[in-house]
Amino acid sequence: MTARSVVHASFTITRTWNASPARVFEAFADEKAKDKWFNGGGNWTLVSRSFDFREGGVESLAGRWESGMVTRFECVYRDIVPPSENEEGRIIYSYNMFMDERKISVSQAAIEIRADGKGTKFVLTEYGDYLDGYDDAGSREHGTNLLMDALGRSVEG
Q1: How many CB atoms lie within 10 A of CB 106?
Q2: Is-contact 16 117, C-beta < 8 A?
Q3: Beta bridge partner(s), residue 106
Q4: Is residue 89 part of a domain?
Q5: Cα dist from 145 to 65, 67, 142, 148, whole Å
Q6: How far apart are CA 107 and CA 55, in angstroms?
Q7: pTM for this model (two decimals)
Q8: N or C: which terminus of the chain carries fewer CB neighbours within 10 A?
Q9: Which of 82, 141, 145, 137 is nearest to 107 (CA)?
Q10: C-alpha neighbours within 13 Å on the C-beta side of residue 64
Q11: Range of the domain at 140
Q12: How many domains does the chain have?
């Protein structure tokens, strides 16, 4: 029998990039643009991918690590507002994370995309619920920072 528990955590990541808000938004909205930065990196092999960027749309990504463990991201987009010349954009989504078949967390993330001079100010705030003894120990925030670094290289490159 598994002992049930929930540990709550949140973090905020802020970046400023030399790219337009439209380009940053497109890096989420376009599957080929997102594939350039949203992955597990060098020690990870793609297992499956689905992409439906719209309110109510579902995105999933699964990959196998060198250890053999498979991680899976399952996301539902809750609110999508493209940035315009006068208004900031936002993307709000909720997602589950799995290690092999074990659900380790349920999270919600809110992304704000706004013009900042000739570039973009990007703010991601995430609230996570870590389940049944899973000890995140800050790895979600660390991994998300690595993804945002990859996103920055993608939109500025």
Answers
A1: 16
A2: no
A3: 96, 129
A4: yes
A5: 19, 22, 5, 5
A6: 17
A7: 0.93
A8: N
A9: 141
A10: 6
A11: 6-41+76-94+104-156
A12: 1
